[in-house]
Write a structure and sequence with these properties.
CATH superfamily of the largest domain: HUPs
Helix content: 25-40%
Strand order of the largest sheet: 7-11-6-1-4-5-12
Number of domains: 2
CATH topology of the largest domain: Rossmann fold
Structural class: alpha/beta
Bound molecules: flavin-adenine dinucleotide
Number of strands: 17
Length: 318
């Protein structure tokens, strides 16, 4: 039986749903599962980590781990992988996993596959990863004994009926990183929902033209408790900050609902959102490429359509 260690994604003390998604997939593959969690004051999350589908919880809880630092976090994952005898270590996609996964792979002498969307076990392990802005799917055969994988957001579904069992192993605090010391982490203080956490994302494109257009689409996002995203055109024009850009050179999102408002659907934008479960587009051009990927499309002027959508949403919500 394969042994899969999932690296818990914890943000400000809250366990992210990606952890359950990865554990659900690992269990669906018939693997033995464990989870490793690092941070300060995170030990009380053990029952939740078990409920998310792990049978062993390796926990590195130490004040020195309060601020994310790639070296010590990687050391804790390597420690857990060794104790568990992991064949695979899975990370959900995040800025921190991008930094930790290659370090773990190097230390475990494992292959490192990033942005994967599927895994099959058998005589050999194979992973699927979209490449060239999602135009092709690579099927990659893993020739090493161990695999470190970073899973694309939304690639695996959480199994709500899943549960594991509590069996906590405390890890020793890893040595601090002397080469790079993280002094402070400044987070987004806007109070906006992060693109990576959102169940609904509403994104604005050049069709919104100006600040008033951006604000109109922003109001729609607020009505839906959605994260507010953007095409690169609106970032380049200075209407939206870069951390809101969705696409090849921005964030990759896979929410339940993605609404593209005044966005043409350039391949670089699609690369960041075409894994969304349902895509809805508003565009005045019936030939806009966004309609090729949209499940629902409204051909019309967003300045007329968005107020109608807002009115209907408010009716339903009240
Ligand atoms: C290397 C590279 C990386 C890139 N990375 C990214 C990336 O990460 N993310 C990204 O988004 N782009 C990226 N781009 C840019 C990308 O190619 C497009 O230029 C960009 O996505 C276009 O943004 P847009 O759809 O908002 O604008 P446009 O392509 O100009 O489309 C505007 C759309 O709005 C519609 N419209 C106009 N007026 C209205 C109205 N009143 N009502 C309704 N619809 C209206 C138009 O019909 C049109 O379809 C990248 C490009 C390169 C070369």
């Amino acid at each position: 039986m394969a042994k899969i260690l999932v690296v818990a994604d914890i943000k400000q003390g809250v366990l992210k749903s990606s952890t359950t998604e990865l554990l659900s997939k690992a269990r669906a593959l018939g693997a033995e599962t464990a989870v490793v969690a690092m941070g300060s004051g995170i030990a009380p999350l053990a029952p939740e980590l078990a409920k998310a589908g792990s049978d062993t919880q390796y926990i590195a809880d130490d004040a020195s781990l309060e601020l994310f630092s790639a070296g010590p976090y990687a050391a804790a994952v390597v420690d857990a992988a060794g104790q568990f005898g992991a064949d695979m270590v899975w990370f959900g996609f995040s800025e921190s996993s991008k930094a930790v996964a290659p370090r773990v792979a190097a230390q475990l002498d494992a292959a490192c596959a990033t942005e994967i969307t599927d895994v099959t076990l058998g005589d050999t392990v194979e992973v699927i990863r979209p490449a060239i802005t999602n135009k092709v799917l690579q099927r990659v055969k893993i020739n090493t004994d161990r695999l470190v994988a970073v899973v694309r957001a939304g690639a695996f579904e959480a199994d709500e009926g899943i549960t594991g069992s509590e069996n906590v192993v405390q890890l020793a605090a890893p040595a601090p990183d002397t080469k790079a010391v993280v002094r402070e982490i400044v987070s987004d203080t806007s109070g906006e929902i992060d693109l990576g956490d959102a169940d609904i994302v509403v994104s604005v494109g050049r069709g919104a033209r100006n600040e008033a257009g951006v604000e109109l689409v922003h109001e729609l996002a607020k009505d839906l408790d959605a994260a507010f995203g953007s095409s690169r055109a609106m970032v380049d024009a200075g209407f939206m900050p870069h951390n809101k850009q969705v696409g090849q050179t921005g964030r990759i999102v896979a929410p339940s609902l993605y609404m593209a408002i005044g966005i043409s659907g350039a391949i670089q934008h699609l690369a960041g959102m075409n894994g969304s479960k349902v895509i809805m587009a508003v565009n005045k051009d019936p030939e806009a490429p966004i309609f090729n990927v949209a499940d629902y499309g409204i051909v019309g002027d967003l300045f007329e359509v968005v107020p109608i959508l807002r009115e209907e949403i408010q009716k339903v919500r009240s």
